[in-house]
Protein backbone atom coordinates (compact mmCIF):
# COMPACT_ATOMS: atom_id res chain seq x y z
CA UNK A 1 0.00 0.00 0.00
CA UNK A 2 1.69 3.16 -1.20
CA UNK A 3 -0.45 5.57 0.79
CA UNK A 4 1.36 7.22 3.65
CA UNK A 5 -0.19 8.69 6.75
CA UNK A 6 -0.46 12.18 5.30
CA UNK A 7 -2.49 10.84 2.38
CA UNK A 8 -4.72 8.94 4.74
CA UNK A 9 -5.48 12.00 6.84
CA UNK A 10 -5.91 14.28 3.83
CA UNK A 11 -8.31 11.79 2.26
CA UNK A 12 -10.42 11.66 5.35
CA UNK A 13 -10.45 15.43 5.67
CA UNK A 14 -11.62 15.80 2.09
CA UNK A 15 -14.38 13.24 2.53
CA UNK A 16 -15.74 15.12 5.51
CA UNK A 17 -15.63 18.67 4.26
CA UNK A 18 -18.77 20.72 4.89
CA UNK A 19 -20.47 19.89 8.19
CA UNK A 20 -24.23 19.31 7.95
CA UNK A 21 -24.82 20.97 11.29
CA UNK A 22 -23.38 24.16 12.75
CA UNK A 23 -20.15 23.34 14.57
CA UNK A 24 -20.71 24.58 18.07
CA UNK A 25 -17.72 26.25 19.60
CA UNK A 26 -17.87 23.71 22.38
CA UNK A 27 -15.36 25.20 24.79
CA UNK A 28 -17.54 24.50 27.80
CA UNK A 29 -16.74 21.00 29.04
CA UNK A 30 -19.61 18.53 29.33
CA UNK A 31 -19.86 16.99 32.80
CA UNK A 32 -19.97 13.18 32.89
CA UNK A 33 -23.15 11.19 33.52
CA UNK A 34 -22.49 9.03 36.57
CA UNK A 35 -24.09 5.95 38.13
CA UNK A 36 -23.06 2.81 39.99
CA UNK A 37 -23.45 -0.83 38.93
CA UNK A 38 -23.04 -2.75 42.18
CA UNK A 39 -19.57 -1.82 43.42
CA UNK A 40 -18.50 -0.42 40.03
CA UNK A 41 -18.49 3.35 39.45
CA UNK A 42 -19.59 4.21 35.92
CA UNK A 43 -19.10 7.54 34.14
CA UNK A 44 -20.22 8.33 30.59
CA UNK A 45 -17.95 11.01 29.13
CA UNK A 46 -18.58 12.93 25.90
CA UNK A 47 -16.12 12.76 23.02
CA UNK A 48 -18.22 15.33 21.12
CA UNK A 49 -20.42 14.57 18.14
CA UNK A 50 -20.08 13.07 14.66
CA UNK A 51 -20.91 14.64 11.34
CA UNK A 52 -22.77 11.89 9.48
CA UNK A 53 -25.70 13.17 7.39
CA UNK A 54 -28.76 10.92 7.53
CA UNK A 55 -28.76 10.37 3.75
CA UNK A 56 -25.25 8.88 4.02
CA UNK A 57 -26.09 6.78 7.07
CA UNK A 58 -29.22 5.32 5.41
CA UNK A 59 -28.41 5.08 1.69
CA UNK A 60 -31.21 2.63 0.81
CA UNK A 61 -34.14 4.29 2.59
CA UNK A 62 -36.15 6.96 0.71
CA UNK A 63 -35.51 10.24 2.50
CA UNK A 64 -39.26 10.93 2.94
CA UNK A 65 -39.67 7.60 4.72
CA UNK A 66 -36.73 8.33 7.02
CA UNK A 67 -38.03 11.85 7.71
CA UNK A 68 -41.49 10.49 8.62
CA UNK A 69 -39.99 8.04 11.10
CA UNK A 70 -37.86 10.72 12.73
CA UNK A 71 -40.67 13.27 13.06
CA UNK A 72 -42.93 10.56 14.54
CA UNK A 73 -40.27 10.25 17.26
CA UNK A 74 -40.15 14.00 17.86
CA UNK A 75 -36.78 14.32 16.08
CA UNK A 76 -35.87 16.83 13.35
CA UNK A 77 -36.62 15.39 9.87
CA UNK A 78 -33.00 15.93 8.75
CA UNK A 79 -31.65 14.00 11.74
CA UNK A 80 -29.33 15.09 14.51
CA UNK A 81 -25.57 14.74 14.92
CA UNK A 82 -24.79 11.38 16.55
CA UNK A 83 -23.29 11.73 20.00
CA UNK A 84 -20.08 9.99 21.02
CA UNK A 85 -20.70 8.62 24.53
CA UNK A 86 -17.61 6.93 25.99
CA UNK A 87 -18.04 4.81 29.12
CA UNK A 88 -15.41 4.71 31.87
CA UNK A 89 -15.62 2.31 34.82
CA UNK A 90 -13.72 2.21 38.09
CA UNK A 91 -13.43 -1.04 39.97
CA UNK A 92 -10.87 -1.88 42.63
CA UNK A 93 -7.71 -0.05 41.61
CA UNK A 94 -8.55 -0.13 37.92
CA UNK A 95 -9.85 2.65 35.69
CA UNK A 96 -11.11 1.17 32.43
CA UNK A 97 -12.31 2.94 29.29
CA UNK A 98 -14.70 1.17 26.95
CA UNK A 99 -13.48 2.64 23.63
CA UNK A 100 -11.09 5.56 23.29
CA UNK A 101 -13.09 8.12 21.25
CA UNK A 102 -11.98 9.70 17.99
CA UNK A 103 -8.80 11.63 18.73
CA UNK A 104 -7.79 14.79 16.90
CA UNK A 105 -7.49 13.43 13.37
CA UNK A 106 -11.04 12.32 12.57
CA UNK A 107 -13.68 15.07 12.68
CA UNK A 108 -13.54 18.60 14.13
CA UNK A 109 -16.71 18.08 16.22
CA UNK A 110 -15.20 14.98 17.85
CA UNK A 111 -12.08 14.11 19.83
CA UNK A 112 -13.15 15.89 23.05
CA UNK A 113 -12.77 12.88 25.38
CA UNK A 114 -9.42 13.80 26.95
CA UNK A 115 -10.42 17.41 27.67
CA UNK A 116 -13.78 16.33 29.12
CA UNK A 117 -11.98 13.74 31.30
CA UNK A 118 -9.53 16.35 32.57
CA UNK A 119 -12.34 18.84 33.25
CA UNK A 120 -13.99 16.12 35.35
CA UNK A 121 -10.77 15.54 37.30
CA UNK A 122 -9.96 12.22 35.60
CA UNK A 123 -6.31 12.05 34.56
CA UNK A 124 -5.84 10.15 31.25
CA UNK A 125 -2.70 8.68 32.83
CA UNK A 126 -4.92 6.99 35.44
CA UNK A 127 -6.51 4.72 32.78
CA UNK A 128 -5.24 1.17 33.31
CA UNK A 129 -7.05 -0.52 30.42
CA UNK A 130 -8.96 0.33 27.24
CA UNK A 131 -11.48 -2.28 26.04
CA UNK A 132 -12.42 -1.73 22.39
CA UNK A 133 -15.86 -2.65 21.04
CA UNK A 134 -14.52 -2.40 17.46
CA UNK A 135 -11.97 -0.65 15.27
CA UNK A 136 -13.87 2.23 13.65
CA UNK A 137 -12.15 5.60 13.97
CA UNK A 138 -14.59 7.07 16.51
CA UNK A 139 -13.86 4.17 18.88
CA UNK A 140 -10.14 3.56 18.31
CA UNK A 141 -8.28 6.61 17.05
CA UNK A 142 -8.48 8.47 20.37
CA UNK A 143 -5.94 5.99 21.76
CA UNK A 144 -3.25 8.07 20.00
CA UNK A 145 -2.77 11.81 20.56
CA UNK A 146 -1.82 14.59 18.14
CA UNK A 147 1.89 13.91 18.81
CA UNK A 148 1.43 10.26 17.81
CA UNK A 149 1.90 9.19 21.42
CA UNK A 150 -0.42 6.96 23.44
CA UNK A 151 -3.15 9.12 25.00
CA UNK A 152 -3.42 6.70 27.94
CA UNK A 153 0.24 5.88 28.57
CA UNK A 154 -0.27 3.40 31.42
CA UNK A 155 -3.06 1.45 29.71
CA UNK A 156 -3.10 -2.01 28.23
CA UNK A 157 -5.69 -2.77 25.55
CA UNK A 158 -8.21 -5.45 24.62
CA UNK A 159 -9.89 -6.10 21.27
CA UNK A 160 -11.78 -9.11 19.88
CA UNK A 161 -9.50 -11.44 17.90
CA UNK A 162 -11.67 -11.38 14.73
CA UNK A 163 -11.74 -7.57 14.88
CA UNK A 164 -7.95 -7.43 15.09
CA UNK A 165 -7.63 -9.88 12.18
CA UNK A 166 -10.02 -7.83 10.03
CA UNK A 167 -8.25 -4.47 10.39
CA UNK A 168 -4.72 -5.92 10.27
CA UNK A 169 -5.46 -7.85 7.05
CA UNK A 170 -3.56 -5.97 4.30
CA UNK A 171 -6.45 -6.65 1.89
CA UNK A 172 -9.04 -4.84 4.04
CA UNK A 173 -8.55 -1.29 2.65
CA UNK A 174 -8.90 -2.45 -0.97
CA UNK A 175 -11.87 -4.68 -0.11
CA UNK A 176 -13.64 -1.79 1.69
CA UNK A 177 -16.24 0.59 0.27
CA UNK A 178 -14.81 4.00 -0.61
CA UNK A 179 -15.96 5.71 2.59
CA UNK A 180 -14.08 3.13 4.67
CA UNK A 181 -10.76 2.88 2.78
CA UNK A 182 -8.97 5.74 4.53
CA UNK A 183 -10.35 4.67 7.89
CA UNK A 184 -9.12 1.12 7.30
CA UNK A 185 -5.58 2.38 6.69
CA UNK A 186 -5.71 4.61 9.76
CA UNK A 187 -7.12 1.93 12.06
CA UNK A 188 -4.54 -0.63 10.91
CA UNK A 189 -1.78 1.86 11.64
CA UNK A 190 -3.06 2.57 15.15
CA UNK A 191 -3.58 -1.11 16.00
CA UNK A 192 -0.01 -1.89 14.89
CA UNK A 193 1.14 0.99 17.06
CA UNK A 194 -0.56 -0.66 20.09
CA UNK A 195 0.39 -4.22 19.15
CA UNK A 196 2.76 -5.04 22.01
CA UNK A 197 0.19 -3.94 24.63
CA UNK A 198 -3.01 -5.34 23.12
CA UNK A 199 -4.70 -8.62 24.09
CA UNK A 200 -6.99 -10.38 21.62
CA UNK A 201 -10.02 -12.00 23.22
CA UNK A 202 -13.25 -13.71 22.20
CA UNK A 203 -16.97 -13.40 22.96
CA UNK A 204 -17.82 -14.49 26.49
CA UNK A 205 -14.33 -13.71 27.81
CA UNK A 206 -13.87 -11.66 30.96
CA UNK A 207 -11.86 -8.72 29.59
CA UNK A 208 -11.36 -6.83 32.87
CA UNK A 209 -12.72 -7.12 36.44
CA UNK A 210 -16.54 -7.02 36.14
CA UNK A 211 -16.43 -6.69 32.33
CA UNK A 212 -17.09 -9.34 29.67
CA UNK A 213 -17.42 -9.34 25.88
CA UNK A 214 -20.87 -9.98 24.37
CA UNK A 215 -20.89 -11.14 20.73
CA UNK A 216 -22.58 -8.50 18.57
CA UNK A 217 -21.00 -9.13 15.17
CA UNK A 218 -22.31 -7.49 11.98
CA UNK A 219 -21.46 -3.80 12.35
CA UNK A 220 -17.88 -5.05 12.02
CA UNK A 221 -16.57 -8.65 11.83
CA UNK A 222 -15.54 -8.72 15.49
CA UNK A 223 -17.84 -6.17 17.12
CA UNK A 224 -18.35 -6.79 20.84
CA UNK A 225 -20.65 -5.12 23.35
CA UNK A 226 -19.40 -5.09 26.94
CA UNK A 227 -21.42 -6.32 29.92
CA UNK A 228 -20.62 -4.50 33.16
CA UNK A 229 -21.66 -6.63 36.13
CA UNK A 230 -21.27 -6.36 39.91
CA UNK A 231 -23.26 -7.62 42.89
CA UNK A 232 -26.14 -8.80 40.71
CA UNK A 233 -26.49 -5.50 38.82
CA UNK A 234 -25.76 -5.25 35.10
CA UNK A 235 -25.31 -2.58 32.44
CA UNK A 236 -24.77 -3.31 28.75
CA UNK A 237 -22.33 -0.92 27.06
CA UNK A 238 -23.46 -1.54 23.52
CA UNK A 239 -20.84 0.05 21.29
CA UNK A 240 -22.50 0.38 17.87
CA UNK A 241 -25.04 -2.44 18.13
CA UNK A 242 -27.87 0.17 18.41
CA UNK A 243 -26.79 3.51 16.98
CA UNK A 244 -29.91 5.61 16.31
CA UNK A 245 -32.66 6.51 18.81
CA UNK A 246 -35.48 5.91 16.30
CA UNK A 247 -34.15 3.77 13.45
CA UNK A 248 -32.28 1.09 15.43
CA UNK A 249 -35.29 0.44 17.69
CA UNK A 250 -38.35 1.00 15.46
CA UNK A 251 -36.82 -0.21 12.16
CA UNK A 252 -34.06 -2.69 13.04
CA UNK A 253 -34.32 -4.14 9.48
CA UNK A 254 -33.21 -0.91 7.79
CA UNK A 255 -29.74 -1.17 6.32
CA UNK A 256 -27.22 1.29 7.76
CA UNK A 257 -24.22 2.21 5.65
CA UNK A 258 -21.77 1.70 8.51
CA UNK A 259 -22.65 -2.01 8.94
CA UNK A 260 -20.12 -4.24 7.19
CA UNK A 261 -22.39 -7.32 7.04
CA UNK A 262 -25.97 -6.08 6.71
CA UNK A 263 -27.78 -9.39 7.20
CA UNK A 264 -25.75 -10.28 10.25
CA UNK A 265 -26.15 -6.76 11.69
CA UNK A 266 -29.95 -7.04 11.44
CA UNK A 267 -29.97 -10.43 13.18
CA UNK A 268 -27.65 -9.11 15.91
CA UNK A 269 -29.74 -5.94 16.44
CA UNK A 270 -32.99 -7.89 16.82
CA UNK A 271 -31.42 -10.42 19.18
CA UNK A 272 -29.98 -7.64 21.35
CA UNK A 273 -33.26 -5.66 21.36
CA UNK A 274 -35.15 -8.77 22.47
CA UNK A 275 -32.61 -9.48 25.19
CA UNK A 276 -32.49 -5.90 26.52
CA UNK A 277 -36.30 -5.69 26.63
CA UNK A 278 -36.81 -9.16 28.10
CA UNK A 279 -34.14 -8.83 30.79
CA UNK A 280 -34.96 -5.14 31.43
CA UNK A 281 -31.28 -4.35 31.17
CA UNK A 282 -29.96 -0.81 31.31
CA UNK A 283 -27.71 0.12 28.40
CA UNK A 284 -25.39 2.83 27.14
CA UNK A 285 -25.54 3.53 23.40
CA UNK A 286 -22.34 5.05 22.03
CA UNK A 287 -24.16 7.25 19.50
CA UNK A 288 -27.57 7.71 21.16
CA UNK A 289 -28.63 11.16 22.45
CA UNK A 290 -26.32 12.20 25.30
CA UNK A 291 -25.54 10.35 27.53
CA UNK A 292 -27.09 7.36 25.72
CA UNK A 293 -28.20 5.71 28.96
CA UNK A 294 -31.60 4.02 28.99
CA UNK A 295 -33.72 0.93 28.45
CA UNK A 296 -35.46 -0.85 25.61
CA UNK A 297 -39.22 -1.38 25.62
CA UNK A 298 -41.37 -3.32 23.18
CA UNK A 299 -43.53 -1.09 20.96
CA UNK A 300 -45.97 -2.83 18.59
CA UNK A 301 -43.91 -5.28 16.52
CA UNK A 302 -40.66 -3.41 17.27
CA UNK A 303 -39.08 -1.48 20.12
CA UNK A 304 -38.40 1.97 21.50
CA UNK A 305 -35.54 3.53 23.44
CA UNK A 306 -36.45 5.05 26.80
CA UNK A 307 -33.80 7.36 28.22
CA UNK A 308 -33.27 6.83 31.95
ZN1 LIG B 1 -19.30 4.38 16.15
Could you write a compact summary of the structure shown?
The chain is of the alpha/beta class and 308 residues long. Helix content is 28%, strand content 25%. The termini are far apart.
Q: What do you see in this structure?
A:
- With 308 residues, the chain is of the alpha/beta class.
- It has a domain of 202 residues: Metallo-beta-lactamase, Chain A (4-Layer Sandwich).
- It has ten helices and 14 strands.
- The strands form two sheets. Strands 1-2-3-4-5-6-7 form a seven-stranded mixed beta sheet. A seven-stranded mixed beta sheet has the order 8-9-10-11-12-13-14.
- α1 crosses α8.
- The longest helix has 17 residues.
- The radius of gyration is 18 Å and the shape is globular.
- The N terminus is likely disordered.
- Bound molecules: zinc ion (ZN).
- The site of zinc ion (ZN) has 6 residues, from α5.
Task: Label the structural class.
Answer: alpha/beta
CATH architecture of one domain, by name, is 4-Layer Sandwich
Q: Show unreliable segments.
A: 1-19, 21-26
According to CATH, the fold-level topology of one domain is Metallo-beta-lactamase, Chain A
User: Spatial order of the strands in the main sheet?
Assistant: 1-2-3-4-5-6-7
Portion of residues in helices? 25-40%
CATH superfamily of one domain: Ribonuclease Z/Hydroxyacylglutathione hydrolase-like
Unique bound compounds: zinc ion
Number of helices: 10
Q: Report the average pLDDT across residues.
A: 91
Through-space gap between termini? 47 Å
Radius of gyration over alpha carbons?
18 Å
